[in-house]
Amino acid sequence: MIIKGEEFVYHIKGETFHCAMDVTMHFLGGKWKTIVLWYLRNKTLRFGELKKQIPDMTEKMLSIQLKKMEADGLIKREVFVEVPLRVEYSLTDFGKSLTPILEAISKWGRHYGETEGQLKAVVKKKKVL
Hints:
alpha+beta, two-stranded antiparallel ribbon, 129 residues, Arc Repressor Mutant, subunit A
């Protein structure tokens, strides 16, 4: 970024970011991260519960995104040694700090969806046996 004619970058944990937006999008970029964070913003969920909330996301992609967000310190993965094994995901305090951003993005999306589109219920097809 250029400040008063001089170029600056952020160096954070061994990575270089060219502006504040670059830093933010490192954590929020991609199709799925914001959606996963959105569903975890108010509660702890298990993998299957998250998957139900985001039916278009494959299990493999959900697993990849959860691992990335855990490595970034956004979410906490808690394993309960029981039969069957139980794993729960929740936001860390760092992840919770993104809640106002997520709410602003959601508000903008709702407004745009309501003014430029239509909200329609999804009609699920019945399985034929």
